[in-house]
Each structure stands twice: as structure tokens, then as C-alpha cells.
């Protein structure tokens, strides 16, 4: 069963996590406050938001 994983913070460590999760067949959405963060380069989807903004985060989840 494929899971959707929402990764908050998409730096170098997150990139390694995304690579590992995708090897296991998971779907990853990388979120960060700036575009083209390292994990965004390998994720299935990307979102650029102010992660301190709860409404922006809720919009991704819905």
C-alpha cells in the first residue's frame, strides 16, 4: 500500500529520506519555505509555503 508522506523541511537530510522512501514505493510531498530545496528535487510533489502559517499548511493537507 502506497502512503503519502508530507516532509516538512526539505534540506539535504530530507533529500536522503525522500530517496529511501521512494525506493520503498512511497509518494513524497516535500515542503519548504524556498523553492528548489534539495528534497524537492527528488520528491513527487513540492510545495513552497511559510511553514509557520497554519492555514497554508492546512491547505496542503486538504
Provide structural commentary.
By secondary structure, this protein is α/β, with parallel strands linked by helices. It has one domain (4-61): Rossmann fold (3-Layer(aba) Sandwich), CATH 3.40.50.20. It has 2 helices and 3 strands, in the order E-H-E-E-H. It has helices at residues 12-23, 54-61; strands at residues 4-8, 27-32, 45-48. Strands 1-2-3 form a 3-stranded parallel sheet, covered by helices on one side. The protein is globular. The two termini are 21 Å apart. The mean pLDDT is 95.
In a few lines, what is going on in this structure?
The chain has 62 residues and is of the alpha/beta class. The chain has 2 helices and 3 strands, in the order βαββα.
Keywords:
62 residues, Rossmann fold, three-stranded parallel sheet, 3 strands, globular
Outline the biggest β-sheet. Answer: 3 strands, parallel
The CATH architecture can be named as 3-Layer(aba) Sandwich
Q: What is the CATH C-level name?
A: Alpha Beta
Unreliable sequence segments = none
What is the helix/strand order? EHEEH
Total strands: the figure is 3
Broad shape:
globular
Given the structure, what is the number of helices? 2
Based on secondary structure, the structural category is alpha/beta
Strand content: 15-25%
Radius of gyration: 11 Å
Q: Portion of residues in helices?
A: 25-40%
Average pLDDT, all residues? 95
Tell me the CATH topology.
Rossmann fold
Our count of domains comes out at 1
